[in-house]
Amino acid sequence: MRRFVFEVVEGVRIAGQAIWANKMRSTLTTLGVIIGIAAVTLMATVINGLDQEFEKALSQLGTDVLYVDQFPWGQNADREWWRLRNRPAIQPALAETIQERSRFAEAAAPMIDTDQQTTYRGREVEAEVMGSPPQYGRIRNVELRRGRFYTQAEERAGRQVCVIGATIAEELFPAITPLGKEVKMGGVPCTVVGVQTKKGESMFGGPGSPDERILMPFRTYDKVFGVSRREGVTVMAKVGNSALMNRAEEELTGIVRTARGVGPGEENNFAINDQQQVMDSFASVRIAIYGVGLFLTGLALVVGGIGVMNIMFVSVRERTKEIGIRKAVGAKRRTILFQFLVEAVIVCLIGGVLGLGLSALGTMGVSALGLNASLPAQTVGLAFAICVGVGILFGIAPAWQAATADPIDALRYE
Questions:
Q1: Secondary structure (3-state) at 136
Q2: Are residue 336 and residue 188 in the same domain, yes or no?
Q3: How many whole angstroms separate alpha carbon 272 and alpha carbon 161?
Q4: Is the pTM of this model over 0.70?
Q5: What is the DSSP string of 223-274?
């Protein structure tokens, strides 16, 4: 064991000396490894950030909520739009039917939205104005920072009250409380009764994010903006238990088919959506990003590995006489092999460290753009493991050439 430890330490020392003696050459050799490691770590960082942002945006839909809509969510809707557009629109009364007949739906409510310029005393912001009954707050788990949610009485009376998002409150009311103030949406006045808790910026933000959304009673929305029977609404149904989603969807399908007069054997003229469909659509995008990233990363690492192999062959040739002397005084084949393998691995690790430095700078840049990017420890560990693998894979050939060199020929080499 002592002899093995000595050989390891001695091999690392000699490899380090050889690399230090050719600092510039070793650094230039690692350019491919640097690019490859920077690419793989930055790709993992961006994908991780995209996953977090997507889950953050998706959580707003709720894991236990089903959405009855005219069109299905996901990629198929775009491809089949020409056929699906002839479906009859979803009408608001369907929510009451679901509420009355469903055993699994704890609450059901229609919702509809439109983008409007919202103003208060000269300040202006674009917002998504959404009309939905008070059940919306329960179905979508709306949290309030100030004030209250509108009531069922205000829904029945069609009162012009609203709950605004945190960003709207900050932009329209930077120094005063919004509660009790009257904002105008498309010229229509509405009294603010509540402010939602800030959800934070998202790459999927803009009009439509909770912070930039205004909620009002459904009847008020119908009175102010009108609900088109041709365009219809979306009906939400909160199941309450995500384990019952499949059974709830089957029950809901039967209820909606009956309500819309779909006969036996006829195709559904509606879609029941949930967040899983959005996740499936994003998964294909994620796989595509991974595929392109891995291809480019693999290409850079192969180029870098070939560069390392080439320079190691040069190193073996330059130190042929040294190899002969070491063999002549009793150095074993495995000692020579280990020495040059360690040298190749150290060269790759240097490239890995520089690549991680570039990746860290790239992560800071991505974070500055608003994406929640970070460089986790497991990604750093993966990068170093890749460096060791590349060093061994592309260093084994020159190391074997050195280890199997004939000592007499090596001593005669000039």
A1: helix
A2: no
A3: 31
A4: no
A5: HHT---TTT--EEEEE-S-GGGHHHHHHHHHHHHHHHTTPPTTPPPSSEEE-
* CA dihedral sign, ordered 170, 172, 177, 181: negative
Q: Which of 256, 273, 290 is the last residue of a domain?
A: 273
List all residues 6 or more positions away from 408 whose beta carbon is below 8 Å from its beta carbon.
324
Q: What angle do CA 288, 294, 296 make, to 5 degrees?
A: 105
Place of tokens 């600092």: 23
Q: Which tens digits make up the pLDDT trace of 192-235?
A: 999 999 986 654 444 457 889 999 999 999 999 988 878 889 99
Q: How far does the chain reach from its first CA to its final CA, in angstroms?
A: 37
Q: What percent of the chain has pLDDT over 90?
A: 33
Q: Which of 273, 308, 337 is the last residue of a domain?
A: 273
Between 284 and 220, the higher pLDDT residue:
220
Residues 117 and 240 in one domain: yes
Q: Distance between CA 24 and CA 298 in Å, rounded?
A: 25
Task: Please write the tens of the pLDDT for every residue from 11-21.
Answer: 566 666 666 66
Q: What is the pLDDT of residues 336-386, one digit of tens each?
A: 888 888 888 888 888 888 888 888 888 888 777 666 677 778 888 888 888
Q: Same domain for 176 and 102? A: yes
Q: How far is CA 393 from CA 48, 247, 259, 340, 345, in A?
A: 29, 53, 66, 12, 9
Burial of 49 (0-12, 13-18, 19+ CB in 10 A): buried
Residues 240 and 189 occupy one common structural domain? yes
Residue 143 exposed, middle or buried by CB count within 10 Å (0-12, 13-18, 19+): exposed
The boundaries of the domain holding residue 291 are 2-56+280-412
pLDDT at res. 16: 66
Contact of 311 with 26, CB cutoff 8 Å = yes
Residues 126 and 247 in one domain: yes
Mean pLDDT of 147-166: 95
Distances in whole angstroms, Cα of residue 56 to Cα of each of 147, 210, 274, 278: 25, 11, 15, 13
Q: How far apart are the C-alpha atoms of 227 and 140, rounded to whole Å? A: 21
